[in-house]
Every structure is written in structure tokens, then in C-alpha cells.
Amino acid sequence: MLFHVDAILFDIDGTLVDSTAAVTRTWRTWAGVHGFDAEEILRVCHGRRSEDTVAALLPEEHRAAAVIELERMELSDLSDVIALPATRRLLTELPPSRWAAVTSGSRRLMLARLATAGLPAPEVLISAEDVTVGKPDPEGYLRAAGALGRDARRCLVIEDAPAGIRAGRAAGARVLAVATSHPAAGLAAADEVIADLTACRVESTAEGLVVRTTDQADGTHRTPTGLTGR
């Protein structure tokens, strides 16, 4: 499948870096300390800001302290954060003016995870503190496109979570999903689903970017999952 776009807007956790184990440990520890059901939290927290998750659990006067506590715990747990397959190649091939990152995490935490994973930091990074409403609201992706001087409708969002896919769709962008943290069947709202970015190639042209997805095994084009309803 081909996408002709002006820029790519990446999620970070689960899309560029594998931080699933650290995120799970943090929420399990926090839930245990505060008497919440960790499994219930883990079912809804992925791809969302900590602010939005704790808002459903705590009264308003305790939420800011909880977010600070969660960030401190995550910053102290970076040892097994790694780059996901092909992300380093893809990011270094892209012109800096043609890509941005939109994350539900804090700026400090995301920069730390990118550095730990050996990935470049984007010139445009829209983080949790830069938006008033987190994913699945489109605000982050609209802000990122605007900061690049692009129309979101001419951008490709790359995401790993249903909330992020919904945000990209709501922004008017095309969406490519990577099945790195969720089963492919749960990502069918994207234009296409691939296993990971190993199946993605990007060519820079005078007009913008041409993004091609191929089968990782034999180089043939994949069937767009989001169009078949799988």
C-alpha cells in the first residue's frame, strides 16, 4: 500500500520504543500502593495520558500528585526500554522537517526513553503537557501538523493503540497501525495494519514523502487490514 503524504506523525511508546514492561511495572506498583485493581487500569491506560487515567480513579485534589508520582517511577525504570524494529533506520532517513512525535507521556519522560533507546529526538514533540485533552482527542496530532506547517489531512499518523488511531482519524490524517502492543484485530480502524516498521519504507521526493508498506517475509504488498474489516 502507498501513502503520499507531506509528513509523518509518530506515537512514541509502543510505536518507536518498547516500554511496555516498564509501563506495566509502574502501574502495577502504583495500583498496589493505592489499592486499585491493576488489571482494570492496564486495560484502559495504554495510549492515554496519566492525567486522564488517574482522573477516573482519584478526586481532583489528588490527581496532580499522582501524575508526578507516576512520572518519577517511570523515569527510574528505563533499563529495558529499547527501540522497536526498524525505527532507528526510518527516523534517520526522514528529513527533520517531515516528521514529529505526539505522545501521551510527559516531555521529560519521552526524551529520556528516546535517548535510552538510541533514537533521535524530533524537532517537534507534542507531549501530555502541550494539550488540554489527550488521545483519542485529535488535539495533539493537529498541533503537531501545525507546528510542521502541514495540513493534518496530508499527514500519516503511525500508532500502536486504539486511542491513538482514533485521534489520528479525528484529525483527518491517514493512519498506519503497528501491531506491537495490541492484537491486529483491535487496530482495524487504521487504513492499514503491519506487524512493525520493518515492513515500512519511506522515499523523500520534491513533493513530500512516499510511504510504502510491504510484507516482511517476501517483499510483496500487504492487504490493507483496515479496509477488509479484519
Please, could you describe this protein's structure?
This protein is an alpha/beta fold. The chain has two domains: 2-18 and 81-228, HAD superfamily/HAD-like (Rossmann fold), CATH 3.40.50.1000; 20-75. The chain has helices spanning 20-34, 38-44, 50-55, 60-75, 87-93, 107-117, 139-147, 162-170, 225-228, and strands at 2-5, 7-10, 17-18, 82-83, 99-102, 125-126, 155-159, 174-178, 192-194, 200-204, 209-213. Strand 7, helix 8 and strand 8 (174-178) form a beta-alpha-beta unit. The longest helix has 16 residues, at 60-75.
Distance between the termini: 16 Å
Count of separate DSSP helical elements: 9
The quaternary organization reads as single chain
What do the pLDDT scores average to? 91
Largest sheet: 6 strands, parallel
- Tally the structural domains: 2
- Model regions low in confidence, pLDDT < 50 over at least 5 residues: 216-230
Radius of gyration: 17 Å
Total strand segments: 11
Per CATH, the architecture of the largest domain is 3-Layer(aba) Sandwich
Order of helices and strands: EEEHHHHEHEHEHEHEEEEH
Shape: globular
Assign the CATH topology of the largest domain.
Answer: Rossmann fold
What is the topology?
Layout: E1 2-5, E2 7-10, E3 17-18, H1 20-34, H2 38-44, H3 50-55, H4 60-75, E4 82-83, H5 87-93, E5 99-102, H6 107-117, E6 125-126, H7 139-147, E7 155-159, H8 162-170, E8 174-178, E9 192-194, E10 200-204, E11 209-213, H9 225-228
Parallel strand pairs: 2-5, 2-7, 5-6, 7-8, 8-9
Antiparallel strand pairs: 1-11, 3-4, 10-11
